[in-house]
Design goal:
By secondary structure, the chain is α/β, with parallel strands linked by helices. It has 2 domains: 3-105, Tetrapyrrole methylase, N-terminal domain (Cobalt-precorrin-4 Transmethylase, domain 1), CATH 3.40.1010; 108-218, Tetrapyrrole methylase, C-terminal domain (Methyltransferase, Cobalt-precorrin-4 Transmethylase, Domain 2), CATH 3.30.950. The chain has helices at 19-27, 36-45, 85-94, 107-114, 134-146, 161-171, 195-204; strands at 3-7, 30-33, 52-54, 69-73, 98-102, 122-127, 151-156, 176-181, 189-193, 213-218. Strands 3-2-4-1-5 form a 5-stranded parallel β-sheet, sandwiched between helices. Strand 2, helix 2 (36-45) and strand 3 form a beta-alpha-beta unit. Helix 5 (134-146) crosses helix 6 (161-171). The protein is elongated, with a radius of gyration of 19 Å. It starts with a strand and ends with a strand.
Length: 220
């Protein structure tokens, strides 16, 4: 491997990809990806056919000997954020390969851009813990809001979004919460209010508890 491209791909709408990303994917000898099914769909949409090698958090480092140009994509968005991209980048550098970023979509940046709040500094916390450390996570969010006046952004699964809002209701009841749901997809929606208001909204409209969630908690 002489060069590794870290390529940003759509977070939903397949049109959200740069011309440079398409060129690089077309020139790559092999594409490393989290899920070959997801990446195959993207490549097929743009009439690209490439050998694929799977690499996720449970995989061994793929054998990339003999490939001059390697592209790495995550399932959605910019690699290296809540995926195993960092390990691949470190490995490539150890092998003496050049690593080049091909920037692309990000659910975090997308939500900030349409939040309607001045978000200068913020803390990105990836996914909230499933069980252990979950209350500690939301206590820290409350501390960042009240003591440091820092907004927090994190990802959450639909099965846990109401539980997350309930903990915010407990530790940061007056916070302003903005939820981006299914960003750039057909049923994209932005919901906002206090934790209590959003718990009520989602409880009475269970059809909204679907898809991918990115959540911004801002100081009032």
């Amino acid at each position: 491997m002489k060069i590794l491209y870290i390529v940003g791909t759509p977070i939903g709408n397949l049109e959200d990809i740069t011309l440079r990303a398409l060129r690089v994917l077309g020139e790559a000898a092999v594409v490393v990806c989290e899920d070959t099914r997801v990446t195959s769909k993207l490549l097929k949409h743009y009439n690209l056919s490439k050998p694929l090698k799977r690499f996720d958090s449970h995989s061994r480092m793929p054998d990339l000997d003999g490939y001059d140009k390697v592209a790495y994509v995550s399932d959605a968005g910019t690699p290296g954020v809540s995926d195993p991209g960092a390990a691949l980048v470190a490995y490539a550098r150890e092998q003496g390969a050049e690593v080049v970023a091909i920037p692309g979509p990000s659910a975090v940046a997308a939500l900030v851009s349409i939040a309607g709040k001045e978000v200068g500094e913020f803390v990105f916390r990836a996914f909230a813990p499933h069980k252990k450390g979950r209350e500690t996570f939301f206590k820290q969010v409350a501390t960042d809001l009240t003591e440091n006046e820092l907004a927090t952004i994190f990802y959450e699964a639909p099965t846990r979004v109401i539980k997350a809002l309930t903990l915010l209701e407990k530790f940061a009841p007056s916070s302003h919460v903005i939820i981006g749901r299914e960003l750039t997809k057909k049923f994209e929606e932005v919901l906002e209010g206090t934790p209590t208001e959003l718990v009520s909204l989602l409880t009475t409209n269970p059809e909204k508890i679907r898809g991918e969630f990115v959540i911004l908690i801002a100081p009032n």
